[in-house]
Amino acid sequence: MTPAELSRTVLHAVRRAVDEGELSVTVPERAVVAPPGPGGCGDYATSIALQLARAAGRPPRDVAEILRARLLGEQRFTDVVVTGPGFLNLSLRGTASAGLVEEILRTGSRYGHATGFSGTAVRLSCPAEVRAVVVADAVARVLRSQGDFVRVECEGRPAPEWESVLGAEVATRGPRIADRYVTVRPVPAPADPLPLGRDAGRWALLHPAAHDRPRIPGDHLVQRESNPLFRVRYAHARTRALLRNAADLGFHPEPGPVSEAEALIAALGDHPRVLAATATHHTPDRLARHLLAVADAAMPLLPAVLPLGEEKPSAAHRARLALAEAAGTVLAGGLALLGIDAPDHL
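User: That's the sequence. What structure does it adopt?
Assistant: Structure tokens below.
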């Protein structure tokens, strides 16, 4: 079950409570679901009860218990627990992972993207400094993935190498009319990132938070686990190698329940929320850290994808292969939004 499907399920429970007279509120357009925070449990949590409590004229925990009773009737959940002041914590059945994988494989690299124009035009401006230009370019890519129309403008004249080497596209001037005006001004790069090339150079500038000084040259070109970019791209390449090897063995991915992959499933399910938050807060470092979390969660799964020795491919192997493919798809799509290549071979 994807976060969007979970949101609709929670809203359906609210609507039923309103229709049956237990709550007197306006049903919101969206219920935010995310991995549980400290003190939470299960696969996802929502604060919808806290959001509705004032309008309902009832304590948040009372609202949460009303919704819990209806959510427990959904066969998609194994348990629904109320924690803290009124958070609803949702535990999904094993088949929920199959639905999430199906959704990712169906939408491909556009998983987590908006389906149409949001109606918002954004003008991004940045100083003529290499890190600011690259960050603005990445922010624009993510905003466009969420349906916004975006124009990036530089307050000075950018060096042509920032586009030809680093792939950052900006204009020096343009129309001033927009729904939102955003200025991107991260801590400047301490050294020239051009010798790193496009992929490592962009990662070096985008992975640190805007208020942190990037490390250049750092270890961004080193192929070892201490290099976060290598871990992300290596995990992607491993998923592609597994697909090739499985095809040689005569079996293909087929979504199904996968045990002992809760961290990976939660990270994949969180991808649309991360993209939306990255767009809202103009923080491509948030997306970079999320991709690293997906890669690190995927690596323990990968050795169990292919059958060993004389073992025949089973439904479990096909389900693990599908989950691995979904992880690789999310990694490739996220890297593309950062303007970084995801090679099939490393």
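The chain has a mean pLDDT of 91.
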